[in-house]
Amino acid sequence: MVKAIGSAYAAGRRGANWVKVKPVLTYDLVVLACEWGSGRRTGMLSNLHLGALDASGEFGEPGGYVMVGKTFKGLTDELLRWQTEKFQELEVRRTAGTVWVEPVTVVEIAIDGVQQSPRYPGGIALRFARVKRYRDDKTPAEADTIQTLRALLRS
């Protein structure tokens, strides 16, 4: 928490002069799949399934990817159009609501942290994940690892 330097302190109260400041961490993850959007995003691939590199093979094949969360936050209309076209070109299979893609696209994701979760195979889930940008300057082998993300639980 921070407050304006000239504002009065009131014990036990958080007024308009106080602002909650959260840490922002960024990680490079790999897009594993996308879900079709709804509402104003109907017809576009929106919700991204995000994977961290499993370099050691702790969760499968060494060099594979472990799903750690999903996000549709931070996507502009331009990014939605781009990823809808791009990910259909990279499609490996699909269901009515989801398109699985080749794990070749790296995206920078901002998070507030991770939490334990039985929902995802890596045992963690991203907290408040949002897209910062796509990383065409990085290969999937340069993505952040599941071990790096799991270490956040201990810090």
Q: How would you describe the overall organization of this protein?
A:
With 155 residues, this protein is mostly beta strands. The protein has 2 helices and 11 strands. Strand 6 (91-94) and strand 7 (98-101) form a beta hairpin. The longest helix is centred in the middle third of the chain and has 13 residues, at 77-89. The radius of gyration is 18 Å and the shape is globular.
Please outline what is shown here.
With 155 residues, the chain is mainly beta. It has helices at residues 77-89, 146-154, and strands at 2-3, 18-19, 25-36, 45-54, 64-71, 91-94, 98-101, 106-111, 113-116, 124-127, 130-134.
Largest sheet: 7 strands, antiparallel
Distance between the termini: 20 Å
**Number of helical stretches of at least 4 residues:** 2
**SS content category:** mainly beta
Shape: globular
Count of extended strands: 11
Radius of gyration: 18 Å
Task: Write the topology of this structure.
Blueprint: E1 2-3, E2 18-19, E3 25-36, E4 45-54, E5 64-71, H1 77-89, E6 91-94, E7 98-101, E8 106-111, E9 113-116, E10 124-127, E11 130-134, H2 146-154
Antiparallel strand pairs: 1-2, 3-4, 3-7, 3-8, 4-5, 6-7, 8-11, 9-10
Question: What keyword list fits this structure?
Answer:
seven-stranded antiparallel sheet; 2 helices; 14% helix; 155 residues; two-stranded antiparallel sheet; mainly beta
